[in-house]
Each structure stands twice: as C-alpha cells, then as structure tokens.
Design brief:
By secondary structure, the protein is of the alpha/beta class. It folds into 2 domains: 156 residues, Rossmann fold, CATH 3.40.50.970; 127 residues, Rossmann fold. 39% of the residues lie in helices and 19% in strands. The strands form 2 sheets. Strands 2-1-3-4-6-5-10 form a 7-stranded mixed beta sheet, with helices on both faces. The chain has a 5-stranded mixed beta sheet with strand order 7-9-8-11-12, sandwiched between helices. Strand 11, helix 10 and strand 12 form a beta-alpha-beta unit.
C-alpha cells in the first residue's frame, strides 16, 4: 500500500477534544491507558473530567454507568481485548440492559497489538458485542469516518461500542461523508461480486476490487461500518445483483461481520458467499500487517476469493 496512512486513534482524540470543549458533560474513563487511548491532551486540559480507574475494567464500566446515570456522557477508553473480554457482564447488564448513555471505545482492536500475541488480540469482540440488545456496534474505516462516528455517538442517547484500531489506514471517505448506523456506504459499483468489509479491511477490499477491475471484472465494495444494526437492504441487493459476496474483517470468521451478513443471506436472499477473517484459531505473534497477510487477508488473496466466486458454478 503506497498511500499515506493514519492512526484512527488520533482522529478519535481530536474529535473528543472538540466535543468536550462544547459540552462539559463529556468525560473520559480509562483503565490506566491514557497514552494508548490518546487521552493525554484531554487529561491536561480537563484533569477533573478524566477518571483513571486503573487496571480494573469491570469497575471502569460500572463507574461509567454511574456517571451516565448522573447526567454525564462517558467515553470509556481501553484496549478492546480487555474492555470486552473482562467487562462483558458489566457491558451487558450495567450498560446495555440499563440503556445507559455510555460510549465504549475499544482501542487497538483486531490484531493491532501484533507482537504481544493472543492475550492482546481482540478478534472476538464483534461476536461478543453484536448479540447484546440496545448496543450499537461500529468499526470506522478511516479517520474521517472515525471523526463522524465519535460525533454521532456523542449526540446519541444510548450505548455505543466503537471499535478503533491503532494500525494505520489510508483516507477513504470524504470528511463530510457523515455516519449513519445501519447504513452501508458503497465505495465501488459493480456486478461481478460484492466485497463487504469494515475497519482496517476496507482499504484492502478496495485494492482487491482494483486488481479484478484490471482483469475486466467490476466489483461492488461496501463499507459496512456498523455490524449492529446491519444494513440488511444493502446485503440483499448485493446478493441479488452480483454473483456472490465476500466479507473481509480483522476478526474471527465466527460471529463477526461475515456471520451477520450470512444470517441475512441465509434467511432472505441466498447466494454464494465467502467469509474471510481469522479461521477460528489463536494468531501467532507478528506485526499487524504481517498477521493480516498470514491469514489470507492481503488484497491479492481477497481478489482471489472474489475471482473464485465469479468462476464457480
């Protein structure tokens, strides 16, 4: 990838500062992750509005629920693997069941922690969170969509889980694109096959579509940034108007974006489909980009999956 890449956490932090300047009810809650959550400037400007719970994620989510009950708008920032893995019961009961106005920000998601291994990889968080009622689950594709998603979350009265990576991605969407949960953004038109991706995989799906375009195959690309609610209409149109669907995600192939899309396909518009992600096993250690390639999530391998669907009978 030759395009300049950017860390979406920077866009998150910049937008949170802007929103907090406008709204004194916005607070930050973290688990001793001021640096990795990019909250340093927030802490410097409003030390009384940042609550550092320490490495106690269950307490962190419970405190956020209490702050929300008191009229604050807490943005809970922690590595996604620890936020979802350790505090899932609190997310379910204290946040979603109570419909608390809490914004859960899963930082460094997917395999962004690379060399730190499976204890720090977060390739199950879609599966865990998307089954919980009341909880919007989203993975922005670039810094523009991250900014828009944070802006939307701040004004939405309800629980949200934003999945943010530290792995650099290029700019894909225009700054004024906006963010609407449950609405996919079509980035390429095409009738051969549809690539559906979110987060860090959107840019790779676009590259795969470019590879196939040079072979004479026009491919549709959908940025499905929200896993819950899912844009069922976009999936059904892809299933009926193209020759198959390939989903791509930095997540297990079980229970994530691919599973959500497959539920729509199986129950309303059957079509050929390929789910690309981590194939149900713990990842080895290595850089995030190397791990994506290791699990066949390179643009070339994604293109090969699309090519295979077009050629299959």
């Amino acid at each position: 990838m030759n395009a300049e890449v950017h860390d979406c956490r920077d866009a998150f932090a910049a937008e949170l500062l802007r929103l907090a300047e406008e709204n004194p009810d916005i607070v930050a809650v973290c688990n001793d992750s001021v640096g990795s959550s990019k909250l340093g400037e927030f802490q410097k400007r409003w030390p009384e509005r940042l609550v550092n719970i320490g490495i106690a994620e269950q307490n962190m989510v419970g405190v956020a629920a209490g702050l929300a009950n008191g009229g604050k708008i807490p943005f809970v920032c922690a590595a996604s693997c620890f936020l979802t893995g350790r505090a899932l019961e609190q997310i379910k009961v204290d946040i979603a069941y109570s419909n608390a106005n809490v914004k859960l920000c899963g930082m460094s998601s997917g395999m962004a922690y690379g060399e730190l291994g499976p204890t720090h990889h977060s390739i199950e968080d879609f599966a865990w969170t998307r089954v919980i009622p009341n909880l919007t689950v989203a993975a922005p594709a670039d810094r523009a969509e991250t900014t828009q998603a944070v802006r939307w979350a701040a004004q939405y009265a309800g629980p949200v889980f934003l999945r943010l990576s530290r792995m650099g991605v290029p700019d894909i969407l225009p700054p004024d694109q906006g963010f609407t949960p449950g609405q996919a953004v079509q980035l390429r038109e095409g009738a051969a096959v549809t690539f559906i991706a979110n987060g860090t995989l959107v840019c790779r799906a676009l590259e795969a579509a470019d590879i196939l375009r040079r072979e004479g195959l026009s491919c549709r690309v959908l940025n499905m940034s929200t896993v819950r609610p899912l844009d069922r209409e976009a999936v059904e149109k892809a299933a009926s108007e193209t020759r198959g669907i390939v989903t791509c995600e930095e997540h297990s192939i079980y229970g994530g974006l691919g599973g959500a899309v497959a539920e729509v396909v199986a129950t309303s518009r059957p079509c050929k489909m390929r789910i690309m992600g981590v194939p149900g096993r713990f990842a080895p250690t290595g850089s995030a980009s190397w791990l994506l390639d290791y699990f066949g999530l390179s643009p070339a391998k994604i293109a090969a999956a699309g090519r295979g669907l077009v050629r299959s009978r």
